[in-house]
Amino acid sequence: MHRQAIPLGRIFGISIGLDYSWFLIFGLLTWTLAVSYYPGEFENWPTAQYWVVGVVTALMLFVSVLLHELGHSVIALRYKIPVRSITLFIFGGVAQIGGEPPSAAAEFWIAIAGPMVSLILAVFFGLLRAVVSGIAPLLALAKYLAYMNGSLFLFNLIPGFPLDGGRVFRAIVWGVSHSLRRATLIAANLGRGIAYLFIFTGVWQILGGNFGNGLWIAFIGWFLESAAVAQVQQQRIQDLLAGHTVSQAMSRNYAAIPAETPLQQLVDHHILGSGQRSFVVKRGDEVVGLLTLHHLKKVPSEQWPTTTAARAMLPLEQIKSVQPSTDLWAALEKMDRDGVNQLLVRADGQIVGMLSREDFISFLRTLQTLKA
Questions:
Q1: 300 preceded by a cis bond (ω within 30 of 0)
Q2: Which regions of the chain are under pLDDT 70?
């Protein structure tokens, strides 16, 4: 999930957010519970009670999903792998873990942690049913959450990458073959096969008259297939970049501007005139910062004539950088991890170039052309 999410706060230092698609599934789930599921399971409730319990159940289900993702994230943090965020969206939740696990064992424990949290929640709500059996709304809530967390546990153990079960399978193949690349490709292709099975089952149910469930199953299959294909493509790109360093892809002719340059002049003569998107800011011969379109947009346009580059730039000590000898794939992962579109390239304390996502894409296209 790369779109802007609605921030909810932080847990263990991890940013928690809501994707806008979450509201769609929340509304649909609440409506289904209040109009169909609960009236069929518990008769003679007031209409308002069905809706209140439906809303609470939907919220608690997404709390369960959040705890599932936190299970992954906490174990990742224990292995010193950064976790950028957790986002709740239409299919549940996703934790943005910044980097591959260091070993097959780490992959296994990170992957299995989420389903184990769901299993614990299923057992907890299952035991809670006996405690609240005389209170119908609480019984309904406990019964549904026990069922859904149990289903979440079983669904995520399906060995289809990138589901948790697929990652567990990849960890096992990795441990046996001692090759993360081979394990990733095997797990991703198995994931594609399972995704096609979901799509086939969904279409079969649609043709059999069960349109709603069939459409949803086919949609999940399409999502899994897309995710598995993306993983295969990522591995192919990683293979293509293997052995190449930042020095081969970086731009040595980066744009530099004086710190006193007004932003309006920068826009008129550099950005609109040449299409340049990032600038090293200098005071005399000394580099003092970096200015990008992202920083420029933070300043209201009516202030551009009177605001200098020095006031809008990112100071030098906050700029992310790499060395020319850094592996190119590692540099790209650093961009993703730090949420930046360019990295300064330094050698012996001196700036020798800049690596942007555009440089990376251009270099990748050159490699693909040479290979073809």
A1: no
A2: 1-4, 91, 273, 372
